[in-house]
Design brief:
The complex is a heterodimer of chains A (about 325) and B (about 290). Chain A is built from 12 helices and 13 strands. The mean pLDDT of chain A is about 90. In chain A, strand 5 (about 65) and strand 6 form a beta hairpin. Chain A has one domain (about 1-85, about 170-255, about 260-315): P-loop containing nucleotide triphosphate hydrolases (Rossmann fold), CATH 3.40.50. With about 325 residues, chain A is an alpha/beta fold. The radius of gyration of chain A is 21 Å and the shape is globular. Chain A has helices at about 40-50, 75-80, 95, 105-115, 120-135, 140, 150-165, 180-200, 210-215, 235-240, 245-250, 290-295; strands at about 1-10, 15-20, 30-35, 60-65, 65, 70, 85-90, 170-175, 200-205, 220-225, 225-235, 300-305, 305-310. With about 290 residues, chain B is of the alpha/beta class. Chain B has a single domain (about 5-40, about 55-225), classed as 3-Layer(aba) Sandwich (Rossmann fold), CATH 3.40.50.300. Helices cover about 30% and strands about 25% of the residues of chain B. In chain B, the strands form 2 sheets. Chain B has an 8-stranded mixed β-sheet with strand order 6-7-8-3-9-10-12-11, with helices on both faces. The mean pLDDT of chain B is about 90. Classes of the chains: A alpha/beta (about 325), B alpha/beta (about 290).
Amino acid sequence: MQHLRTVFPLHTGGDTAAVADVSFTLDRGRTLGLVGESGSGKSVTALSLIRLVQPPGRIAAGQIQFDGQDLMTLDEPAMRAIRGRRIGFVFQEPMVALNPVFTIGQQIAETLTVHGLARGAAARKKVVEWLAAVRMPNPAQRADAYPHQLSGGLRQRAMIALALCAEPSLVIADEPTTALDVTVQAEILDLLRELRREFGLALLLITHDLGVVAEMADHVAVMYGGRIVEYGPVQTVFAGAAHPYTQGLLACLPTLHTTARLQAIPGTVPSLGQFPAGCGFATRCPHRFALCDTTPPPDIRCGEAHVAACYLHQEPAS
Amino acid sequence: MSALLEVRHLVKEFRQSRLFGASVVTRAVDDISFEIQQGETFGLVGESGCGKTTTGRCILRLIEPTSGQVRFKGRDLAPLSANEMRLARRDLQIVFQDPYSSLNPRMRVGAIVEEPLVIFREGTKVERARRVAELFELVGLDPTQATKYPHEFSGGQRQRIGLARALALNPSLVIADEPVSALDVSVQAQVVNLLLDLQTRLGLTYLFIAHDLRLVRQICTRVAVMYRGRIVELGDAEAVFTAPTHPYTVALLSAVPKINPGDRVARVVFDAESCVPVPLREVRPGHFAAI
C-alpha cells in the first residue's frame, strides 16, 4: 500500500481525511500489527485495502498492490473475486458479521460455492474439515448450529473457518479478540498462530491492544491521526519506541508487575477533522517545537528497518 | 478494626421461567463473602458472567439478593425499607461502565451532577451551584462547561462527569463497575490517576469491578478472583499476582498478553470439569484459595 488517502465529506463542504497518508508492505507469511486508538484510521485503512469504504467516503489517492495486482484499477466484479477468496476477513463481533438465519455450515458452504471451490456433498465435507481445522469441538454437529447457539469463542472460530475456507493468502483480522474474555482470547490467538503456520498466511492484525501485537506480529505500525507514526520490527519498537506517541502509549499501559502511578498522555484524541495542521500528535506531545505545528514530519529512519514520523530523529543539518 | 463493608454468604439466583416445564434457576452469585476496610481499593475480577457486576448491584440492592448479608458501617442493609435504603445510598455510590448510556442525554451536565443534591434537598440553589462548580474542578473539568450536554464531551470527560455525580454527596464507598473499560488506553490512564488522587484527597474506599487484570494489579490493594459465581482466590494484590494459587487464577494470569517477552509464561489452561467447588481456605496469612 502506497500513500493511501481516504476521505469523508464534511457537512460544511470539503473533505476530511480519515487516512491521511499511509504506506506499508506486508510480505507473504508475515504478520503486521496495525495499532492505534479509536479514530486513528486503522479500520478505514483495512477497509480501503479491500475497497469497501462506505460511500460517501472514498479513496482519494494511493496505490494498492496485492500479489502483483493493482487493486485500484480493478472493477467491482474482479474485486469481488478477490474479497473472501484471496483476502479473508475476521471481524471483531462475530455475532454481527455472521448471518443469524443461516447455520454456520450453510454460510461456509455458500462461500465455497460462490468461489467455485466445491458444491453439494463435497462442500458439506469441506465445511466439516474446516470446522475441524479451527478446532471446533464436534464439527459435524456444530455445522448445523446457528450463530446464536454458539459461545463467543466458538463463534469466532466459525468466523475464522469462514475467512479461511477459500484458502486466501492474506487475512485481515480487525480486533479479532476484543469482544472475548482473556482466556478465550488466548485460545483464539493460539489458533491464529497455528493456522498462520499451517497455511503460510499473511496476517494484517488490527488492534488497540499492544500486548496482542507484541505476542502475534513480526512488524508493528502505530497509527495516530490517519498516519503511521512509527513502524518497525515488534521487538525493536517495544524495546525502544522512537515516537513520543508510542512512548506515551507504552508508559500509560498497566502491566501485571507495576503498581506505580500511570504516566497518562495529556489531552484526548482529536475528533476527525480536528487534527492539527502539522504533526497530528503535536498538541499532546511533550517535545513539541515550532516546526511540529506547521509541517507534518516525514518518515525518519531511526534504526534497522525502524522509522518514526518525528523531527526528534532528524540528523542535525551540517 | 471493623470493616467498612462486610459481605457474608451472598447469593443471587435468577429464575428464568419457561413456557413449558419447570423454571430454570441460575446461581449468578453463589455464596460469596468478603470485607472491605476503610480506605482500601478492593478489586473484584473475573471474566464475563462470573457474577462480579451482579455482586456490585446486590450490595447496593439495585437488584435484591436472594440471601446473605451485606453490612455497611456495621449496619445490615437487607432489612432496610426502600426509603431507608435510598438514604443509605448517599454514602454508597456507583460509577457505571458506559459513559454514553449512564448520563441522561437531555440534561445539561451541571444538572446531572446537581441532581443527587436536589433529591436529598441539600443546600440552597446558590449553594448547590457552588458545590457543582467545586465538583467539576475536583474531577478536572472546567466549571464553565456545566451548561453543555453530555454529547459535547469525550468518553473520558463523560466518565469524569459520572464520577462528579457519584461524589456529590460525599460517599465513603464508591463501587466502580468497569469505570475505564470503554475508554481508549491513553485516556484510561488519566481516569485511573484521577480515581487514585480522589482517594487520597477524600479518603474514599473503592470496590473496583473489572475484567482487566493489568488494571486491577495497578490500583487494587486486595483482590478477589471470581469464577462461575464463586470467589476462588482472595488476598493482597501483591500475593495473588505474584503467587497465584488457584488453578483458575494461574490460567487467567498466563492468558494476559504481555509486551515484554521476558514476562511471558507458558500458557496454562484451566480445566473447569476437574474443578469441584470447595470453600476458601487460608493458604498463607491473609491469602485464601478455594483448593
